[in-house]
Design a protein that fits this description.
Blueprint lengths: L9 E6 L11 H4 L4 H14 L3 E6 L3 H10 L6 E5 L8 H10 L3 E5 L21 E4 L3 H19 L18
Parallel strand pairs: 1-2, 1-3, 3-4, 4-5
Helix pairs in contact: 2-5, 3-4
Bound molecules: ligand CA2.
Ligand CA2 binds next to loops.
């Protein structure tokens, strides 16, 4: 297989509330892997592609908003698992909107196969895409998607390049 050319890109990875507990409880839903192991694998995969990740977990909505804002000027893309804020947080959705950094939302579990309240993602409506249900693989697929998006946008033929436009978005 031909070697892929390196993508000089920086990806901010954000984990929302309770994800620090990964690997300690509910393995039937979230798997046995810990967040530290996911972060290490993301760093390894990014480095393999010439890219860099910076990963942080927070249980606090405002901190996640601060970190999204602070990603401006550093990150080429964001990969976020907003945890339960996925279903409630207009503040995180607005922050994703405000920074206009292409954002991939990821979930360990399939949010459409669980309680009805989890099926709606308030934050995901402002992401370029959403990956859900592949446990830790969701993060790795999310990183892949983010890097492919950055690469194709730089080449001028992104997924129509699109971070969702503020004006033309239908109401969701
Ligand atoms: O599937 C996902 O990744 C979720 O974002 C996880 C959130 C949940 O509220 C979302 O609906 C879907 C919950 C994260 C809690 O993580 C735990 C991990 C281990 C033990 C307990 C909770």
């Amino acid at each position: 297989m031909a070697a892929r050319s390196p993508i000089r890109a920086r990806v901010r990875v954000l984990h929302g509330p309770n994800l620090n507990l990964l690997g300690t409880r509910e393995p039937e839903i979230y798997g046995h892997i810990t967040l530290a192991e996911i972060d290490a694998e993301l760093a390894r995969r990014a480095a393999e592609r010439g890219a860099e990740v910076q990963c942080t977990q927070s249980n606090i909505e405002g901190e996640l908003v601060d970190m999204i804002q602070a990603a401006r000027g550093w990150a080429d893309a964001i990969v976020i698992n907003p945890g339960s804020y996925t279903h409630t947080s207009i503040a995180i959705r607005d922050a994703i909107d405000a920074v206009a950094i292409p954002t991939v939302e990821v979930h360990l579990s399939n949010i459409h196969a669980r309680e009805a309240f989890r099926a709606r993602s308030i934050t995901g409506a402002r992401a370029i895409g959403l990956i859900s249900g592949f446990r830790a693989q969701s993060y790795y697929l999310g990183l892949d998607a983010a890097l492919s998006h950055v690469e194709s946008t730089r080449r001028g033929h992104g997924k129509a390049g699109k971070t969702p436009s503020r004006r033309r978005q239908p109401r969701r």
